[in-house]
Design a protein that fits this description.
386 residues; binds alpha-L-sorbopyranose; 10 helices; oxidoreductase; alpha/beta; Dihydrodipicolinate Reductase, domain 2; Rossmann fold; nine-stranded mixed β-sheet
Amino acid sequence: MKSINIGMVGYKFMGKAHSHAYRDLPMFFPKHIRPEMKVICGRNSQGVSEAATQFGWQEYTTDWNDLISRDDIDVIDINAPSDAHKEIAIAAAKAGKHVFCEKPLALTLEDAREMLAVVKETGVKHMVNFNYRFTPAVMLAKKLIDEGRLGKIHHFRAWFLQDWITDPNFPLVWRLQKEVAGSGAHGDLGAHLIDMAHYLIGDISEVIGMNETFIKERPLPTEMTGLSASGDENSQKGEVTVDDATLFMARFANGTLGSFEATRFATGHRSTNSFEINGSKGSVIFDFERLNELQVYFENDEEDVQGFRRVLATDDAHAYSDVWWPTGHTIGYEHTFIHAVTELLEAFAEDRQPVPNFEDGVKCQQVLDAVDLSIEKRQWVQVSDL
Ligand code: SOE
């Protein structure tokens, strides 16, 4: 197989990030299967036609059914708002198309499980885009843990902090509506933290959380707008039906203790996505705003030089370093999407399921729902009870 034909649904922020990945990939990964940017789909005909030209798609359509009924499309890439994931993914799999879906996989655990059942039944390949796993510095943290170089892991603490809705006049965009987004900071940002925890530490067994919606009503938007929308205080208002912030504590199956914070109200933090892990032999700290670096501490360093050191994860010893620039030259946010797509393509070449896939999407959703249940009941919830 030399190339694979992509049909993509969505053309905004994530649509651009995915398109960029498909476009850049063949230049840097020439031996990989080539993703052909066949058709892009979106509801607004003018918007999607402009995106097709700007991003480099061969054709566009306003009806996703067109994509899944075409014989010349192999993979359906879904990055439309979260409420569209289930219907499109299920229809695509039933039509024999492989599915690459943005996170969170679904609005609820029940929906996520239904999606998983269909992709399993139909035998198609399925992947969820938890792109931060594919950051070389994160992969270094994983390697240190897997090789036992941090010893027994005691703590995992993670925080994803944004501040784009602190203005009370920021409009009620789709990300603030439960029926479209499923949840707020929890599913949007917390989902990344939970997947990171699963990837690095393992299964979460029990959780207890709390959340808050600081601004309960907002001006209605005039159109479906994104993160940089502006509002008008004189517009009619609607109810915010998602959390602005969700925090929770967790116990992992292997005994690690975890704490998680996802918020859109951390003034000054545009998009701080970080974790710290402490083990018996050492610790690591990752901050996506410095994504090329991992702070590493080893207990067995000589006493007079003990402390966190900054390891640049773009040097020769690290993941993808042979692909990008000469040693020490850094990479960015967009590279995480390219790396994620290489995993999808390698799964085709090796005839296996890519990772993370819908199983991981379901596991993440199970924790998201367990936290919400714990908040509702004001008590600890066993993840396996859901
Ligand atoms: C907006 O909050 C957002 O773009 C998320 O939807 C992404 O998943 C995250 O990576 C960055 O922030």
